[in-house]
Write a structure and sequence with these properties.
23% helix, single chain, alpha/beta, globular
């Protein structure tokens, strides 16, 4: 493979991952993206957001056959036509995946052990595929508290995306910004934490901001 040539490098694109509780405003963040945006909706939450009312640049996943439908999206989507792609909400896709797999069992309610490995492989491949596209990508997910063990063996709970560990870690490693979104209960204002701590997974390798208001996420 030839050495990387900075002069011939394609335009710089960004990958953001924002997680938070349902209803905190993750999908609404998409209205602050600059340029033309396409929405891949995995949970239908856009239907309650005024910004997306009447827009046609939306793919809504079929909950009865989510993987077949997602594959169809990946094959048909043309990233050259858009500045941004919003993948909203991977946590719901994970739940739909396991529901679909359970239908293949005798009880239609249980998941096989192999389903978990299959999910890891599928989501990792999907993220690797779409992250090669020459467009900015915003990914959203619900939040969960995950048990973390530090080098000394001490266990603690840490906020992070509600995605199973192996594909989650691959996704986190390939995003430029991972931010936890919260809402101030007194003022109603929404903001994002972009600095990691013992109790929150976050990172920002684009600049030195540790936090920002929701409307400022894509600035600077």
């Amino acid at each position: 493979m030839p050495a990387f040539n900075w002069k011939n490098a394609p335009k710089e694109n960004y990958r953001w991952l924002v997680y938070g509780v349902p209803g905190v405003g993750k999908t609404t963040l998409s209205k602050y993206l600059k340029g033309k945006t396409y929405l891949l909706s995995l949970d239908n939450s856009f239907r309650r957001i005024q910004f997306w009312q009447g827009k046609k640049d939306i793919w809504v996943i079929d909950p009865q056959k989510p993987i077949e439908d997602l594959n169809a999206f990946a094959e048909s989507f043309d990233p050259s036509q858009y500045d941004n792609l919003v993948i909203d909400n991977l946590s719901n896709l994970q739940k739909l995946f396991f529901v679909e797999k359970a239908r293949e069992t005798k009880t239609t309610l249980d998941n096989k052990m192999s389903d978990y490995g299959e999910w890891t492989t599928y989501l990792t491949r999907f993220i690797a595929y779409v992250f090669k596209w020459n467009t900015n990508i915003l990914v959203t997910a619900w939040e969960a508290q995950n048990k973390i063990t530090d080098p000394k063996g001490q266990e603690f709970m840490q906020y992070g995306p509600d995605i199973r560990p192996n594909p989650r870690d691959y996704l986190l490693g390939n995003c430029d910004v991972v931010a936890r979104m919260i809402q101030n209960p007194q003022s109603g204002g929404r903001g994002l934490f972009m600095q990691g701590s013992i109790d929150t997974y976050a990172k920002n390798r684009l600049n030195d901001r540790k936090s920002c208001k929701a409307e400022d996420l894509f600035k600077g």
